[in-house]
Amino acid sequence: MTARTDALSNTDKQYIWHPFTQMKDYVNEDNLIIESGEGVYLIDTDGNRYIDGVSSLWTNLFGHRRREIDDAVKSQLDKIAHSTMLGLANVPATKLAEKLIGIAPKGLKKVFYSDNGSTAVEVALKTAFLYHAHKGDKKRTKFIALKNSYHGDTLGAVSVGGISLFHGLFKPLLADVKFAPSPYCYRCEFDKRPENCGIYCADALEALAKKHHREVAALIVEPMVQGAGGIITAPPGYLKRVREICDKYGVLMIADEVAVGFGRTGKMFGCDNEGVTPDLMALAKGLSGGYMPLAATLATEEVYSAFLGEYSEYKALFHGHTFTGNQLGASAACAVLDIFEKDDVITNLQPKIAYLTALLERFKGHPHVGDVRQRGFIAALELVQNKETKGDYPPAEKIGAKICQEARKHGLIIRPLGNVIVIMPPYIITDGELKKMIDAIEVSIDRVTI
Fold it and tell me: CB within 8 A of 157, min separation 6: which ones?
């Protein structure tokens, strides 16, 4: 560690409170300070290069310093950085909205901008509640969500979060939400087997909806993959059943595509895997390619129309953000969507998805990898102390964190979800770099667990 890095590290530890980080541990550990990026690599203040194995928290789709996105942001800076959208429009946000509706699941027609995934979900929750109120049904004040779900950190988003470790402490502050079983096949709470269970967890979801639908405004789901819950991949047909249940009981469907949207599942959106159109869809993360804070909530014409009325009726959506539709973020996002089209990203990603599948095969026989999960270009390895009993490592052992620390020695930055190792690299990663990444994870698991 150079003197400069040491000085920066000391300043960081003196002043910064890091998110989702136990600072008592952090201040006593060596920490990396990132100074630059290039393609799939992050470069620290000592010049060391690391593969960005989680795309800077699942956002950086096309690598760092991508010329087209850089140029779009620089060009916009020569015009204006920001102006409010409260009663005003701007050029990049207008163009982006048209592009988003052009690629979104059929039936989504309107775009409401915000700043990040949490706020995109907040918009969806408030919109769902007000939709029913404006339609004259003020009893629908509750929501249905899934266990192991994660939808953000603002209070509304936390209310529909189903991870007790993250959300339990805030329970006195939260809305009344009904939680359905997670489609967690590896640890099915009903002790079913996916090959013959008939998606039993969806039956349980329907039973919950049937019981409470008259008081429920919306059901929120992460399409195909529950992200922060441990990269839990839903069985085929589950998402379609969710849509059917919502239709049957008159409940709006909110699709939280913040983590899975923009190609992660192998389709442009997670909903596209099963031909589903939600009533509301939350977008963020990959929307701006990991460049700028930007989010959007898409709505159907039916939902949007419920907010139309005379000024004196006060039906407008009373929600907004200072940086709604920010020009720099919207310019970056327009460039991102141009890359998708120009490079035929979804088609060209398929061979890499197949290669990742092949690389993951080696872990299926590992004594401490209980489950290997993958959906498109998202994958995870669930670590267990005992493979036969699926016994977890105790939290005090910090197995996931130790493996990720070890991976840094092998030129890889990844971040665990407890005992789950997440694999979510940028789409531009080469086969050679992908193999290097998986090799680093394998040796790191071996050194920590065996």
Answer: 117, 118, 121, 122, 125, 151
At 113, give phi and psi (nearest 5°).
-90, 150
* Residues 311-354: tens digit of each pLDDT: 999 999 999 999 999 999 999 999 999 999 999 999 999 999 99
* Residue type, position 16, single letter: I
Place of tokens 């919306």: 218
**Residue 350 belongs to what domain range?**
32-65+344-449
252 part of a folded domain: yes
H/E segment holding residue 441: helix 431-449
d(CA 194, CA 201): 10
- 22-31 long-range contacts, CB within 8 A, separation 24+: 30/1
Q: What is the pLDDT of residues 99-154, one digit of tens each?
A: 999 999 999 999 999 999 999 999 999 999 999 999 999 999 999 999 999 999 99
| The residue type at 433 | E
Please state, as a whole number, how many other Cβ atoms lie within 10 Å of the Cβ of residue 386.
12
Q: 334 and 404: one domain?
A: no
Q: What local confidence, expressed as pLDDT, does residue 450 receive?
A: 83
Whether the CB-CB separation of 237 and 252 falls below 8 Å is answered with no
308: tokens are: 């139309």
**Of 283, 309, 342, which residue constitutes the final position of a domain?**
342
What distance separates the 2 farthest-apart alpha carbons in the chain? 69
Q: Which two tokens stand for residue 143?
A: 């929501």
